[in-house]
Amino acid sequence: MKCTSKKRTNILVCALLTACTLSGCGSLAYDMPYHVDYDVSSFNVVSRQDIRTAAPFAADLCVAAQDVAHEGGPDLSQVEAAALFGLDGKEVLYGKNIHERLHPASLTKVMTALVALENGQLNQTLTATDAVNITESGAVLCGLKKGDTMTLDQALRILLVYSANDAAALIADNIGGSVDRFVEMMNEKAHALGATNTNFKNPHGLTDSDHYTTAYDLYLIFNEAVKYETFNEIIHMSAYQTVFYDKDGKEKAFDKPTTNLFLRGDYQAPANVTVIGGKTGTTSAAGNCLMLLARDENGSPYISVILRAEGPDVVYGCMIDLLDEIHK
Other CB atoms closer than 10 Å to residue 44's CB: what's the count? Predict the structure, then answer.
């Protein structure tokens, strides 16, 4: 399904209501209801001199109101949701349950990184508080303790390469002033991007019944994040080594490989497709999740998303089948 464009759009323009005051001065009100459950809920109003038009919010995005498939397409029956987006052609090449609300696990951390990049400085020092004390069983941690310090640049690399949940809390607490305020910023940014089927409750993706998003909303978020050179650099890393400091100034070493098994060489993308990087996620509620930025032999970029697969072999095997759609 092709994307909309500024010259051709099927989004209905809301009515413009003009109200006159007793003095004869007029004002314009735009009746544009915005709700997370609306299929098409957001677009920008632009005014130029006396001409007033409504331009579609999604003018430069891939748009699909329903699932997209074709005969002979991949068998993705083992995953709950999947999508493949061609960024140059602004096409949804494949979509299964792309608007279904699901747990995203650590794919959440893409939004955490995006909000941090927009609101922080890479060289600023972050100091750990009690917010980094995450006790959920099985949660991936880099070992932060109260009083530890590292830069935002270090924290983002630990966040995206190793998927450390305490690094997510460190970033949120320092950039937002509190974890709760940072989560508000995440939701504000999501809705500003048109990700209206998304609701974040934390910055890391550990299970919460009210923490959800969709494959399509994740595309919107990831598509914004890859506009940052630092983000693209980090998601392409196969490992990360660094040193941060405890409250007494003593060094604490960090040395971990990426969680992305494409970058580690455990799985291979289809011929003529290069995986640039992405984000993994796994919880009992979310299953195995994977989101990637890839390029074809011409350098054209693609975003692919898989949610709720049962096991790493399934999520990577299905992702390979999904990426194989690039050349069909």
Answer: 10
Q: 246-283 pLDDT, tens per residue?
A: 999 999 999 999 999 999 999 999 999 999 999 999 99
Provide the whole-model pTM. 0.82
Secondary structure (DSSP) of 46-91: EEETTEEEEEETTTTS---SS-B--TT----TTEEEEEEEETTTTE
Residue 162 DSSP label: I
328 is catalytic: no
Q: What is the largest CA-CA distance in the chain?
A: 73
- Which among 90, 163, 189, 304 is annotated as catalytic? 163
The DSSP result for 260-296, as a single string, is: -TTTTTSS-PPTTEEEEEEEEEEETTTEEEEEEEEEE
Q: Any catalytic annotation for residue 238?
A: no
163 labelled catalytic: yes
